[in-house]
Amino acid sequence: MAILYKKVKRLSDPTDKVSVRKAYPVITYKYGSAATLGEFAKEIGSNSGVSEGEAISVLKDFRTLLRKTLLSGRSVNIEGLGFFFLSAQSKGVEKAEEFTNQDITGLRICFRANNDIRLHTGTSTRSDGLKLKDVDRINEPDEIEAGNGEGEGEDPSV
């Protein structure tokens, strides 16, 4: 399995406009396809003994109940998966007293993964076959990609 990333330049300290611009990795999904509900249901069905149709139904019901629960003002903590919660967006106002409901421009569903599924770049992840691939060098052979030591290509230390 390979995790694709691209390099972007941004200020090393966003609050300081004269700070140095450095390259940082950003995970990209442009070159792959998103997993579908059907794929998840098929995999769950083959692993758990329930039919694919039953798995799809349960996943759709979960999605509906998650949205309903979040919109009722509660967060959702699914043991072994993670924590879902809402975040409000606004442009902000100078004084807190002046803030009203109309200043909220949107809501986002946020997710914080539980430690059980959180990815770490330590040795256990490497032994699981994790590879990081620079999308700017995706068509180059792996032996060239892996070895210049300047932070490009696959990073053997991750």
From TrEMBL:
Key word DNA-binding present: yes
Keywords (alphabetical) are: DNA-binding
Locate the HU domain: which residues?
A: 1-118
On whether Membrane is a keyword of this UniProt record, the answer is no
| Coiled coil residues, start to end | none
The biased composition feature labelled Acidic residues covers 141-158
Recorded hits in SUPFAM superfamilies, A to Z, give:
IHF-like DNA-binding proteins (SSF47729)
Q: Which domain of life is it from?
A: Bacteria
Where do the record's region annotations for Disordered lie? 131-158
Q: What is this protein called?
A: DNA-binding protein
Origin organism of this chain?
A: Bacteroides nordii
| Upper taxonomic lineage | Bacteria, Pseudomonadati, Bacteroidota, Bacteroidia, Bacteroidales
